[in-house]
């Protein structure tokens, strides 16, 4: 460690010119007496160090002398320092080493002393609202990589014996760590990907592991990611969406909404557009689209349309009040329709926002209205409230 300090001291003198022993001690994190001992050691090694006492004095190298170690240019140093210590390196336990390297880079490059030492660019890896996964064994995985050793990991299922793998690299994908490793090692196995957060125990083994010379982590990850995305099941759902729903697509579906909206059909007179969304399975489609209420209408496939209608019935059934009249659903629960006043009030508000006024026909008693609603519901052809229109009064702009 003293050799590193002596090197840092020589580079400091070369970059800063004259400096007091107290300033050098603060920079190196040692005492003033240690600085004087190190200066004597440099002189004994043939480096011409000059010390001058009194005001304006200090410690410096002899005029014209250059230490035989090339430092970085200021722009090169700034390129290395701009990120500070990224969180991924702190996760790997390398924060201390990187901070020390940054300190030496600043010294050797001759960056201005007043330049900020904090990072100018910050990398926030996880997605919004994604959270950070705990990875208790990450540093053990990284140590096996750096040492070139095999690794015993315990990975689900929990009752399985520890797996001996040959670590090839670590990947941080949107804040989630993955271990790329050869498994099984003894048999020259395939390259596998393990989610590091699911590794419950890891032990670095004494047996060495030679990383294949032709293995490139970035190229493998790009290829594996493309194959993984292509292997996931896809269910295409064709639907019509209102302007309100389209405006929320970016928030609900993220980056995938962009290409979908670009490929959507032209808007109709009411602003609705027909488009196609992809989901992993039918349940995912129903759960994601149910939140849009009457602002989307499923056009196909029929099974998704039927499943969404059944889900709507189940939601109504969940919120029914005691003693309510109930409409049986087709094998998927019941619909509460007792609170017709609430339903009609919602319709009035919905139409009111669009510049229309509506009222229930005055001669229609509640029992008659309820009967008509029950009889018309199973035969309606849309997911909106269009099936209620015949039972409402005048509708005027």
Structural classification: alpha+beta
What is the alpha-carbon Rg in Å?
35 Å
**Gap between N and C termini, in Å?**
84 Å
How many beta-strand segments?
A: 14
Biggest sheet: strand arrangement: 6-5-4-3-7
Order of helices and strands: HHHEEHHHHEEEEEHEHHEHEHEEHEHE
Which runs of at least 5 residues are low in confidence (pLDDT < 50)? 322-339, 353-367, 378-397
Helix content: 25-40%
Question: Which sheet architecture does the biggest sheet show?
Answer: 5 strands, antiparallel
- Could you tell me the mean pLDDT? 78
Number of domains: 4
Q: In what range is the share of β-strand residues? A: 15-25%
* Broad shape: elongated
Keywords:
397 residues; alpha+beta; Arc Repressor Mutant, subunit A; SH3 type barrels; 4 domains; five-stranded antiparallel β-sheet; 40% helix; disordered C terminus
3D architecture notes:
The protein is of the alpha+beta class and 397 residues long. Helices cover 40% and strands 20% of the residues. The strands form five sheets. A five-stranded antiparallel β-sheet has the order 6-5-4-3-7, covered by helices on one side. It has a three-stranded antiparallel β-sheet with strand order 9-8-10. The radius of gyration is 35 Å and the shape is elongated. Residues 322-339, 353-367 and 378-397 have low confidence and may be disordered.
């Amino acid at each position: 460690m003293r050799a590193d300090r002596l090197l840092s001291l020589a580079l400091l003198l070369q970059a800063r010119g004259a400096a007091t022993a107290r300033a050098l001690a603060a920079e190196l994190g040692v005492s003033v007496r240690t600085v004087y001992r190190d200066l004597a050691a440099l002189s004994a090694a043939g480096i011409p160090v000059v010390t001058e006492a009194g005001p304006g004095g200090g410690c410096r190298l002899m005029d014209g002398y250059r230490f035989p170690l090339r430092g970085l240019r200021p722009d090169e140093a700034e390129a290395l320092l701009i990120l500070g210590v990224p969180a991924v390196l702190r996760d790997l336990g390398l924060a201390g080493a990187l901070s020390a390297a940054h300190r030496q880079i600043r010294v050797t490059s001759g960056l201005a002393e007043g330049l900020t030492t904090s990072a100018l660019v910050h990398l926030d890896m996880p997605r919004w609202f994604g959270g950070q996964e705990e990875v208790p064994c990450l540093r053990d995985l990284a140590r096996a990589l750096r040492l070139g050793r095999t690794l015993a990991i315990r990975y689900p299922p929990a009752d399985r014996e520890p797996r001996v793998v040959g670590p090839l690299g670590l990947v941080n994908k949107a804040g989630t760590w993955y271990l790329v490793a050869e498994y099984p090692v003894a048999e020259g196995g395939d390259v596998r990907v393990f989610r590091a957060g699911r590794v419950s125990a890891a032990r670095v083994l004494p047996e060495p592991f030679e990383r294949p010379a032709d293995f490139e982590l970035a190229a493998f990850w790009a290829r594996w990611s493309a194959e993984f995305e292509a292997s996931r099941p896809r269910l295409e759902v064709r639907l019509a969406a209102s302007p309100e729903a389209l405006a929320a697509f970016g928030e609900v579906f993220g980056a995938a909404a962009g290409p979908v909206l670009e490929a959507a059909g032209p808007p109709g007179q009411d602003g609705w557009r027909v488009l196609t969304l992809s989901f992993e399975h039918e349940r995912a489609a129903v759960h994601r689209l149910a939140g849009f209420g009457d602002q989307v209408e499923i056009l196909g496939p029929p099974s998704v349309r039927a499943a969404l209608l059944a889900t709507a019935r189940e939601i109504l059934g969940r919120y029914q009040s005691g003693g309510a009249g109930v409409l049986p659903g087709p094998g998927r629960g019941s619909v509460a329709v007792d609170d017709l006043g609430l339903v009609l009030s919602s319709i009035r508000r919905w139409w009111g926002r669009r510049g229309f006024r509506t009222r229930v026909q005055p001669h229609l008693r509640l029992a008659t209205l309820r009967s008509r609603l029950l009889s018309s519901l199973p035969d309606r052809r849309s997911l909106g409230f269009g099936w209620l229109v015949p039972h409402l009064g005048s509708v005027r702009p």
